[in-house]
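Sample 1 of the test manifest.
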Amino acid sequence: MAKLGHEVVGIDVDPRKIENLSTSRAPFYEPGLEHLLEEVLQTGRLRFTTDISEAKGNSVHFICVGTPQKKGENAADLTYVDAVATGLLPFLSPGDLVVGKSTVPVGTASRLAHLINLEHPSAHLIWNPEFLREGHAVADTLRPDRFVYGVSDGSEDNPAVAVLDDVYAVPLQAGTPRLVTDHATAELVKAAANSFLATKISFINAMAEVCEASGADVTGLADAIGLDDRIGRKFLNAGIGFGGGCLPKDIRAFMARAGELGADQALTFLREVDAINMRRRSRVVELARNLCDDSLLGQQVTVLGAAFKPESDDVRDSPALSIAAQLQLHGAVVTVTDPKALPNAARRFPELQYEECTRKALEGADMVLLLTEWQEYCDLDPYEIAGLVGAPRMLDGRNVFDPNKWRAAGWTYRGLGRP
Ligand code: UDX
């Protein structure tokens, strides 16, 4: 927002985050973010505080807090969203705009609009879902694919629309499409988009299972069906499945909400999407055992990658770490390496061993698993690292390597859904 030219105050309850952000240190790894922070902090248009009363006098208020999965349930935890909406109430002025970015169950926006309008009848609430991807957050924010505005009456003429158009003037003028709809549709756009993406990944992983049973190759299959424009090649990479702080919990929260609305039958397929996804993790463990002559006991295993995807240090619901932990439970001695995510990984899975240096992590390994496709792992030379490991066995959980090249270099290579 500050880069787009606005005066911005960022508010959080965590004083450490605020202190770090104020000195352009991001609380997580995201390419380009610290550089951008430095640039805008110098302009004086951005500052950070823990004091929510500093929202007073500003005319647009963004709610950007998380909606994690509730413990032991599928539903989303709305504690933080509700706390921000309620916390803002004393500091809103007539005509202010509140913009919801968080991913919420359908019905939340109308409930919050009601709550806000009880005290501030002239204030507006727009639900404006966030579609950014981790690892691409800066680019996705400055130039998104589209804007979706959910307004109370679903009308382009709603006065709140022009206010948000001013906020997004730069990307709108650059041609970013913008759709105006009602609160419920805007909330559902986000749930539907993430469900579609998750379904696409589980679809190709289901095909990988059939390929494994029939000796076919899922990568060639994905290339061929992906050339059909109606299907498209993106999000058709079979492998260890999806993780992270969004897709897994969003499809579960969506099913839970549909259940509350009496529409659970419409989303039973998402249960299957989730099940196929979780099955990938057990399949990798099974393949790993096969590769090690049916026993992982005492095997020295190196896992390349801990983050749920490359260019991120996020390990929330990371399939890589979940597989590493399962291998260890089967008796393997597991060493995990990752360019950015090791501190987060060690906090979540203290029982695993971690090594920062890739070469050291590979030394003497009886088996290597590539589980997060960081570029530096994709660039590994099979001839060179064959000399480091104890036994050249590669389980490629993301199907990024050329099997022929690895086999020619003396490796026993296994991909997922590949012969
Ligand atoms: C996702 C959505 O893409 C984004 O629009 C939304 O705002 C938040 O959730 P993100 O969680 O950052 O973004 O990651 P994404 O790039 O979607 O990847 C999610 C998971 O799917 C990762 O674990 C990734 O490795 C996996 N994936 C992705 C596959 O297994 N195969 C693919 O073909 C693509």
